[in-house]
Amino acid sequence: MTKISTFLIVLVFMAFSLHAQKKSELIAKISELETTISALNDSVSVANRQINASNSRAEVLAKENLDLKDANATLLQNLTSFSKISKQNTASVNSALTSLKKKEDQLKVITDTFSKNDSLAIATFTQIRQSLGAEAKMGVSNGVVVISNSLAELFGSDSESKLSETGIAWTAKIAEVIKTYPNRAITVEGLNITGEFEITLNQTSAIVNELIKTDGLQPEKINTVVKDGNFKEGINIKIGPDHGEFYEMVKKEFK
Hints:
5 helices, rod-shaped, 5 strands, 255 residues, alpha+beta, 5-stranded mixed beta sheet
């Protein structure tokens, strides 16, 4: 074998060795790349799963957000309605309270009038008792002071219609008290047991005429009543509240 042949054989062998080495390295590199690709594919799969999960979660959140918006809109509408109703109820309550306060004020006027009437009745009774004396026949009923006297004491007899001196003095004393209470209504009541009402009317008229002789006493405040005394006769002078005036006051307050 010549040197050239030997050299060629060596060269070929080296070429084959080099080729074999590169092929081995290439196979290793391919294997490495396949491993990397597989890892990348796994990562992509994981990423895709995560993306899908994120997309699903996003869809759920979007739906929840939409539901929340609807719920908020409904809540806002309900709050608006509640606010309107609350304002209406507040207005109704305020109106009711105002009306109640007005009624309370009106009732207070009436109760104050009753209290004032009771106080005036006591004051009138006391003053007349002091004027006529402890023996005077007097009483108070429903805020009305009633002073009574017999026909014999006032006229001398039950058939006489002219006042006696005692009757004149008695009537004058009462008139002096009455004029200090100009807003009180006066009723002169004649009681009869015989049925002869003309005489009783004359007797009550005599009392009225004597009363109005007193300066300051208002004749329009005096009423005259003649009736069957049911086994009682005499004269009653009643001093009480002016019901007509009270009615006008109440009508004005409740208008």
